[in-house]
Amino acid sequence: MIALPDIIISVVYILGIVALGLWAGIRQQRASKSGDASQYFLAGKSLRWPSIGLALFATNISTVHLVSLAQSGFDTGLLNGDFEWMAAFTLILLALFFAPFYIRSGVATLPDFLEKRYDRASRDWLTGISVVSAIIIHIAFSMLAGGIVLNTLFGFNMYVSVSIISVITAVYTIVGGLKAVVITESIQTVVLIIGAVIISVSAYHRMNGWHPMVQVLQTTHNLDKLSMMRPSGDGSGMPWYAVFLGYPVLGIWYWCADQTIVQRVLGARDQNHARVGPLFCGFIKILPVFIFVMPGLFAFALAHSGKLDLSAITRLDPSGHPVVNSKGIYTLMITQLLPTGLIGILVAALLSGLMSQVSGALNSISTMVSYDIYKRYRPQTSDVRLISIGKISAGIALIFSLCLLPLLNRYESIFNGLNEIIAHIAPPITCVFVVGVFWRKASAASARLTLWIGSCLGAMVFAINKLYPGTFLGRIPFMMMAFYLFCICLLMQVVFSYAYPGVSTGTRLYWNSLKEPLQSKGWKGIGNYKVLSLVLLLLMIILFYAFR
Questions:
Q1: Domain 4-29+36-409+417-508, what fold?
Q2: How far apart are CA 134 and CA 401, in angstroms?
Q3: What tens digit of pLDDT does each residue of 138-151 get?
């Protein structure tokens, strides 16, 4: 339980974010034409690169990351930091190759883009998959992590407390639209980073520095926890080749082809802002390894040094041996390492992660349902009606997400559970986007069949792994499973493109060569997207080498 001052800080923060979100959204709507759907769903395409970059980071980094990355740091060390740093490479791809198409085509959603490149059937399938994935991945898992935090800190019922926070978030999201989401996410990103830095510094200080922590790891024979590039056969199931082969499949879907993330780019005021925003996010993505994963590693060392009491999250297994439930390690560090006042700031940071993730996902769901489903069957629908449909769909999605919490809570590791689901959803979507953008012969029939068969194949493999975990498929690490499924989808689309050749719906939305997207000069100086891409690429190579 935490002190009254910390509770007051948390409550004031929540009320402040709600007030800011409502003010921003209502102000935007009043300044624009009344009932303009573009203003509501895409902020009138007025977003600049700082807001885009911060909003991308905030939508990506939720309470799931604060809780689960600390858990992974405690359990496996820096290994899951690969997911954070590999994201920089896919953000470079988004900036260089995908964002120009999205802005040039003037689409409101990525399913809309897929129809322009292929056909309407592809659009419909992606809409369904995107709505489902937003409900499960972006909302339900974030709620689960937030519920664990609120239960540990306050003793509140996990499901009741997270329901209240989510409904509060839905209020300003549904009323204010994307403008409210982006402005509040920018504030929440700053608060989240400040909170994460505080806990990192506190853990570092309690451990008396880096070298004492390394000595503990050496004494306990856990020096491998400092490595992000594991050898073949590593017990984690994530050797170095699985990271470089499997992550791009997950990452391209998540950062370049997922509506919840890319909607911030679609709201950019022009192509330069759409490109520099993701690159700005790529630089920020360097931080999570140090402020999200590292605290969990320090917690491991502190526990083995007797400086962190794990009794609150330790239980006895059926054989009588103590087992640590590492899901609660982050909240345990908050209560044991921080004084009153700072705890309130950390709680605000955790709530920021939950609220920003939920708000971003609800906004993208409402956009897809309005544009890709409702307006398709009723093309003459007014903007006012379209906005109403979006608001209703956001509320329904929130209810479905809450119903999934008991099922998702069965995962021992939240982060691994999240990525395991993504690994079976992403391959066919990544395939049709990558092939469609880089190969002009990719036909509409090939995309349609690849999405249908690939998605069914992924669902079937996932079901087999859950029902019969001892089979050959069940022993394949999820990162490599994502790569194998992608290869199957790639082969299918190439074969189907030759078997069923045909042109897309009309607009040329593919690159003739890799040089074509780089012909745009961009801004001058350090703000040039080419310069920023090169700097980010070199920086990531250096970091991976340092923590190999």
A1: Sodium/glucose cotransporter (1.20.1730)
A2: 9
A3: 888 888 877 877 77
